[in-house]
Amino acid sequence: MKNTDLVSDTIRMNDEQSDSPAYAEVAALYEQFFDPIYRYCYLRLGNATLTEEAVSEIFLKVVHKFRGYRGENLSGWLYRIARNQIIDSARKHQREHIDPFADCEHVASYDTPEAAVLSKETLAALRRALDALPKKQREVIELYMAGWTLEQTGTMLGKSPSAIKMLRHRAFTRLRSLLSDE
Q1: In the predicted structure, residue 108 carries a pLDDT above the cut 80
Q2: For residue 58, is pLDDT > 70?
Q3: Where are the chain's structural domains?
Q4: CA distances from 127 to 19, 99, 114, 144, 181 (A)
Q5: Which CATH class name applies to 1-98?
């Protein structure tokens, strides 16, 4: 899943000295944030190809904008770049139906055709319930599903970890309610 050559090649195109501080810092960011950014994009876009394109664009933007980074909250800065890229990608491909659980079928193996149908129905119900949540609650759950911690999510959204914990609790409570009504 990781392609460190993407960052290396891009930085070399912009800065011929790969031992520069900018190269080391961006490469470290890539190593630290690639997986969480990828998972977040995949949950939002639901398509491996679109996700790979979006993640590539995100880290290219990081490379190009890194010199202008002013020491603000780093994970928040990356999250804003990722969120904006997801919005751009979704707009670009809005004619296509983007299903956030479309690639999930290859993950699970089914013993029977009935199990496959039930799994698809469960995923469809979860999709509808997530879509029914308020934006902030949906975002907190998506970040949780992508593996972000309370601290990371709080930093990204400009809230304390305790506020994120409460928002997440409310979101899961609402999600349970929506799913039980199905």
Answers
A1: no
A2: yes
A3: 1-98, 115-182
A4: 45, 9, 20, 15, 14
A5: mainly alpha
